[in-house]
Amino acid sequence: MPDLLQEGIGFSVVKNRPAYAITSVDSALLLASLLQQEGAMRVTDVAARLGVSVSTAHRLLGMLVYRDFAEQLPDRRYAPGPVLRRGAQQQASVTTLREVALPHLRRLVDAVGETANAMVLAGSDVRFVATVECDQILRVGDRTGRTLPAHLSSGGKAVLATLDDAQLAASFEPLDAATAARLDRELRTIRRRGFAVNDQETEAGLTAVGVAVPPAGGFTGAALSLAAPSARYSRGRLPVWASALAEAAGAIARDLSEGPSGEGKT
User: Fold this and answer.
1) Is this structure's pTM higher than 0.90?
2) Residue-wise pLDDT tens digits, 137-172
3) For domain 91-262, which CATH number applies: 3.40.50.970, 3.30.450.40, 2.40.30.110, 3.40.50.11590?
4) Taking the alpha carbons of 136, 11, 119, 21 in that order, is the dihedral positive or negative?
5) Contact of 120 with 90, CB cutoff 8 Å
6) Beta carbons of 125 and 118 less than 8 angstroms apart
7) What's the rounded Cα separation, in Å, for the pair 231 and 64?
8) 130: nearest Cα among 86, 79, 95
């Protein structure tokens, strides 16, 4: 079962990993997502983020350039190409969020002992922009670059609970009447208690708790989550998790307000 643990326990009920995954294709698609989310990257940065050699990173970038998913800048960095620029969102802000959030995610993992994530709302989905894995053998894996339906994920629901009725309309539109009614009731509960729970709604065997990051530094729609194997989760852990998440979210908001010089402060 090592492959299962590497990717995160269970199989997604929303989007299954192919039985015969093609590693090079997966790496290229993840790289395209990173370029779209975070903007220009150096070859060495790409190699580090994907966990591949510099030569492999160079070949992946070369193929993305060939297909217009990337382009090389005069300073030799690689930026999103014409295809990705059609849907590029908040590149500078997402990069800043990731850089600011990472130290706080590490502290969350140290304090709670489970995997921590940062994500942003992207239409009716949330996109994971940073993950810090815990060191337990059975753990939730790295979600960076992936998306989940906002109305099912803990961080997505936490962000949706901060929106007004007009902003929520787009997220409710694709849902059937029963699902929309259930979500509306759940959002009222989330607003009251300040956190959201995803108990195996997106992946069998996975439970997550999420909170919204307060708007700061011109950035909105961000959230944090702690994710664990459901077998290790209990309602008794909720107060500790919710408190730790709220503290981290507040610290990230303060750092975003202060700008780059405030990164990592608590």
Assistant:
1) no
2) 999 988 888 889 999 999 999 999 999 888 888 778
3) 3.30.450.40
4) positive
5) yes
6) no
7) 41
8) 95
